[in-house]
Amino acid sequence: MSLPPRDSPGFATTLGVVAIVLWASTVAFGRSLSAQLGPLSAAAAVYVVSAVFSLCVLISRPARVRGVLRLPPRYLVVCGTLFVVYAICLYLALGLASGSQQAIEVGTINYLWPAATVVLAVPILGQRARWTIVPGTCAALAGIILATMPPGQWSSGIFIDTLRTNGLPYVLALVAALDWALYSNLSRRWAGGAGAGAVPLFMVITALVMVPLALLQPVDEVRWSARLILELVYLGLFPTALAYAFWAAFHPPEFATH
To answer: Taking the model in full, what pTM does it have?
Structure first.
């Protein structure tokens, strides 16, 4: 089985699918790093690795540097801010989760972003959605609610109690999901496929924001190990640097009629 040509929509769609597959490992590795380094320190370390890698790739291609400088200022400012906010919310949500079960629930809530992306594409990109968008969105929301409840105990009271006990990770995960949906649509509207070139810049900005925040977070002495370093390098290179770059080049298939 051969890949579609690089300049075809099918190739860009393939990159988008690969990005989602890589992101699927973020919860497990992000939770592990947050437990060892603290949420902000973990995020800072991951984005420093990603920024160094992405910046080296960008600098090696002068034409891409010039392309970034030609991107609309509103795209660089607004989408760059959304990129940073998403990273902070996601890692805080994973780090503040009370255990592995809640970390999985946080990851599930974060995966509301595909449904939110489709919904927001209607007002932002001018898409005319098919009728299936309504039941599809409702099903996604219902699935998220059920996933955050104890098995066999489905009630609005239990759901509210769960939120009261330690609801901040859920709120942060929801903010991250909506943030990324907004980023995906605005980047498509203002930069199109050219937005992939700005991802290294966003990585650098995120690292520059994360490092000072991490220094303000009190943490215990870190015990560095081969496993910790491998997790950090993997998370920095694959689910972060490569996945974000792949998603920026993704051309979503039409879900609407014009």
So the answer is: 0.82
